[in-house]
Amino acid sequence: MKKIVILTGAGISAESGLGTFRDEGGLWSHHRLEDVATPEGFARDPALVHRFYNARREQAATALPNAAHQALARLQTSWPGEVILITQNVDSLHEAAGAQMVLHMHGNLAGALCGVCDHRWTSPPQMQVGETCPRCSVPAGRPDVVWFGEIPYHMDTIYAHLSKADLFAAIGTSGQVYPAAAFVQQAAFAGAHTVEINLDPSSIVPDFEETRFGPATQTVPVWVKDLLQTI
Ligand code: APR
Hints:
Blueprint: E1 4-8, H1 11-14, H2 27-30, H3 33-36, H4 39-44, H5 46-62, H6 67-78, E2 83-87, H7 93-96, E3 102-104, E4 107-114, E5 120-122, E6 141-145, H8 155-162, E7 167-171, H9 183-189, E8 193-198, E9 210-213, H10 216-228
Parallel strand pairs: 1-2, 1-7, 2-3, 7-8, 8-9
Antiparallel strand pairs: 4-5, 4-6
Helix pairs in contact: 6-10
The chain binds adenosine-5-diphosphoribose (APR).
């Protein structure tokens, strides 16, 4: 049975009340990403970076999965082949909807990471400057999120999945951040059918064979229903 690989971005969580990055009024219109999403920014002003992620963690803690997250979880349980879910999102709404095996390539707000020994632990709701690592005791705790200039997680696993994909879908992502923006090309090279599902055309829409536009809570359940009817 066909192997499906799905990449999700901030757009899938927008209708759960979590802001996107590059839409009008998005996070990057209120914050300089150089200040809050780079290792250099954290070295300069860790308090500012913790405030930014503490606010996002607080907001994510009360957000609920929407019909798009639920439809993808349903696809994973109902599809007779493999359904690999890769997300750029640092919220846990796929898991809250019941999804299995979510590859968080940009990390997760729920995690803390030691900047010295790479140990990971569960983040407290509010991280403080000088958060102490429970393994090496150095006060070098940071959010376990991948910043600009850092290498995303699970890349070997992701490329292995893309090289065997029969169907690749990108949902709610602007296609402006690499390496995720190049996944469609890797999947197409492997012979996969490619679908973009987004509010409106992304900057890489010409790379896709099929497109479906509209709010994710409407388009994703219909796409999943269409797929399940092909079984
Ligand atoms: N339904 C579907 N798509 C939507 C919706 C919606 N309700 N609302 C917005 N979108 C689309 C937008 O049209 C846009 O193309 O979601 C996309 C969001 O794009 P970005 O804000 O750029 O988010 P994303 O692509 O996930 O960003 C990638 O950039 O800053 C980094 O690390 C951050 O993981 C993030 C990465």
